[in-house]
């Protein structure tokens, strides 16, 4: 894992001290509400529906066990509202039909950050000090700046990887942090980066998507795309450069962001994301970026060109842990034992198949701990679970875990010999559901239970579907499928890229849900990234699980065999189009109205 230098540490700690001072001045009335607001936002402190919300950055999703333990401590000791706040929140929730709002937990997001929903602002300074003690902070997790750079969760360990993207992500993190030119962009700006053949970081859906590859001459570089994003207008990124030598990545991104900074629609916040500029200007935007890039490199001397020595220095922090380097060959007797255990324990076998992926080191595996389970919102982790993951990371994964874009945690350094022991420990903690990539492994935003911008709640819908689909045999029969839920058109739950997308909409002050089909985030089983299409007018909350059931029954009835396997849901949707699914879904509504 990357180790912060003394410079980074001093910076993060002094930032926490500065924030303590700002809070104290606000509390004593020396800073007005208006003056304090941007300062708290710049440190990741929002104010949401019921209480403040803290967003903590997790650069490229990597967490050490020490950081996990501090997150657990924050959840346990601080994620609790004042009594009056909780009373008012519970009262508001009762009207919506949700009785209990969970406290004492952390929430992992699709951009691999972590959020807390209840910490009182009066305790914010103590929390920031605690986070700073393990090099964590909330800088650039809010506002119109370059946000946390997200990555493939298998970076550096994936067998299908051309090069490790983390050193580049770290160099760019250092460069973009508090960069004055990028502090007040027209709108928020999100970069994702992968170095693998499969896109596990949804790069096409980002403001800038970076894909490491080699050209015909074997040189390393990036395919650079820009202008991807969701919201009201889902747009995929446009490729600006098929190949950019890696040394120039920051010079080029400077050009991309500078042109956006100059021409982005500051007059209208709904049109201010870079996607609108790239779509409106097309080739003209690309030409401007290229001209700016030439200016930066030829006239200004390429001030951000990455020297080989700097890449080597940062890469050295990402070397495999010692024990992983020692065992760089497959151990066939170990694999025999594993197979024997799998034969005796069908649940273990299922977990091996679903939650365990190949590693670039043949004697190691990448293991996903599932945070998708009954009675827990997707991506939520309790204080105890966080402590347990820290323990598992220490015992089995060189003290390291990663946050995934799909709101799970991954252990990247697990010896194949340890898989059974890990499975037993994870099962005892309820983190071994063998549902990775299946229907219940869904993405959801906090929705109306917590978010002030929501049109409808996401979590109860996620729960109702999870409750309906508890049978692992049935889930496996349905096969790989991405279900994504957002509580409003801001699309934090990525509903546009779900094979099935669910979007909360407001009609006459009531919660309704639009369903889309055929979206893709660009991962291997999903095929090329694309937005889903709406299958008709919206449904009420109780109808949603029935609609999902109707859509899936239709799929099961019409799917075909491809070789030795069944067609995936997304493949069937692409083959037959929306009509059969629309008909089945609309039947649910008709029946619902008759019943009412
Ligand atoms: C509850 C507090 C939150 C608030 C107030 C909030 C607000 C917003 C807003 C206003 C946007 C749209 C920006 C725009 O397009 O101009 C947005 C985008 C986004 N949010 Fe959130 N968000 C919250 C939590 C989350 C969470 C928990 C996640 C992850 C599960 C998340 C992930 C995202 C992502 C990925 C986008 C970009 C979507 C795109 O590509 O356009 N947000 N958020
Ligand atoms: S999609 Fe809407 S409801 Fe969900 S977190 Fe984002 S802003 Fe809130």
TrEMBL record:
Molecular-function annotations in GO: 4 iron, 4 sulfur cluster binding; heme binding; metal ion binding; oxidoreductase activity
Annotated ranges, domain Nitrite/Sulfite reductase ferredoxin-like: 53-83, 378-426
Domain Nitrite/sulphite reductase 4Fe-4S: start-end pairs: 142-282, 442-585
InterPro entries: NIR_SIR_4Fe-4S (IPR051329), NiRdtase/SiRdtase_haem-b_fer (IPR005117), Nit/Sulf_reduc_fer-like_dom_sf (IPR036136), NO2/SO3_Rdtase_4Fe4S_dom (IPR006067), NO2/SO3_Rdtase_4Fe4S_sf (IPR045854)
Species the sequence originates in: Caballeronia sordidicola
PANTHER family membership: BLR3264 PROTEIN, FERREDOXIN--NITRITE REDUCTASE, CHLOROPLASTIC
UniProt-listed SUPFAM superfamilies: Nitrite and sulphite reductase 4Fe-4S domain-like, Nitrite/Sulfite reductase N-terminal domain-like
Keywords associated with the record: 4Fe-4S, Heme, Iron, Iron-sulfur, Metal-binding, Oxidoreductase
Protein's name in the database: Nitrite/sulfite reductase hemoprotein beta subunit
């Amino acid at each position: 894992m990357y180790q912060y230098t003394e410079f980074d540490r001093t910076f993060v700690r002094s930032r926490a001290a500065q924030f303590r001072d700002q809070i104290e001045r606000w509390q004593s009335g020396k800073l007005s509400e208006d003056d304090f607001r941007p300062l708290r936002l710049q440190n990741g402190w929002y104010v949401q529906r019921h209480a403040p919300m803290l967003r903590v950055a997790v650069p490229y999703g990597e967490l050490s066990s020490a950081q996990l333990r501090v997150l657990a401590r924050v959840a346990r000791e601080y994620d609790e509202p004042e009594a009056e706040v909780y009373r008012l929140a519970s009262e508001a929730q009762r009207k919506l039909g949700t009785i209990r709002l969970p406290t004492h937990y952390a929430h992992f997001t699709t951009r691999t950050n972590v959020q807390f929903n209840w910490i009182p602002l009066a305790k914010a300074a103590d929390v920031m000090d605690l986070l700073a003690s393990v090099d964590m902070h909330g800088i650039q997790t809010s506002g119109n700046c370059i946000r946390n750079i997200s990555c493939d969760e298998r970076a550096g360990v994936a067998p299908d990887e051309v090069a490790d993207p983390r050193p580049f992500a770290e160099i760019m993190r250092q460069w973009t942090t508090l960069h004055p030119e990028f502090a007040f962009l027209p709108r928020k700006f999100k970069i994702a980066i992968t170095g693998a053949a499969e896109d596990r970081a949804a790069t096409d859906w980002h403001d800038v998507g970076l894909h490491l590859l080699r050209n015909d001459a074997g040189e390393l570089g990036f395919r650079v795309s820009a202008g991807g994003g969701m919201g009201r207008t889902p747009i995929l990124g446009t490729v600006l450069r098929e190949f950019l030598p890696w040394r120039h990545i920051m010079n080029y991104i400077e050009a991309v962001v500078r042109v956006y900074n100059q021409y982005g629609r500051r007059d209208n916040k709904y049109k201010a994301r870079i996607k609108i500029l790239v779509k409106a200007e097309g080739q003209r935007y690309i030409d401007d970026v290229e001209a700016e890039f030439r200016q930066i490199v030829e006239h200004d001397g390429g001030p951000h060109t990455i020297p080989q020595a700097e890449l080597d220095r940062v890469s050295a922090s990402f070397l495999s842990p010692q024990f992983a380097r020692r065992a760089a060959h497959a151990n066939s007797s170990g694999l025999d034992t594993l197979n024997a255990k799998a034969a005796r324990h069908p649940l273990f076998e299922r977990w091996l198949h679903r939650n365990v992926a190949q590693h670039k080191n043949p004697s190691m595996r990448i293991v996903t701990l599932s945070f998708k389970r009954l009675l827990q919102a997707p991506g939520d982790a309790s204080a105890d679970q966080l402590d347990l993951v820290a323990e598992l990371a220490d015992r089995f994964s060189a003290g390291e875990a990663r946050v995934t874009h799909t709101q799970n945690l991954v252990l990247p350094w697990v010896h194949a010999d340890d898989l059974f022991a890990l499975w037993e420990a994870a099962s005892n903690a309820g983190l071994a559901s063998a549902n990775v990539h299946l229907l219940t492994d869904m993405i959801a935003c906090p929705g109306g239970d917590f978010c002030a911008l929501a049109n409808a709640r996401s979590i109860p819908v996620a729960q109702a579907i999870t409750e309906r689909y508890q049978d692992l045999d049935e889930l496996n029969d349905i096969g790989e499928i991405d279900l994504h839920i957002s509580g409003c058109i801001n699309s934090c739950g990525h509903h546009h890229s779900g094979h099935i997308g669910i979007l909360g909409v407001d009609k006459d002050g009531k919660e309704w849900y639009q369903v889309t089909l055929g979206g893709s985030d660009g991962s291997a089983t999903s095929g090329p990234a694309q937005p889903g299409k709406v299958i008709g007018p919206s449904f009420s909350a109780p109808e949603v699980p029935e609609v999902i059931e109707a859509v899936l029954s239709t799929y099961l009835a019409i799917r075909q065999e491809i070789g030795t396997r069944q067609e995936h849901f997304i493949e069937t949707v692409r083959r037959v189009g929306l009509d059969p699914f629309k008909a089945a879904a609309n039947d649910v509504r008709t029946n619902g109205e008759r019943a009412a």
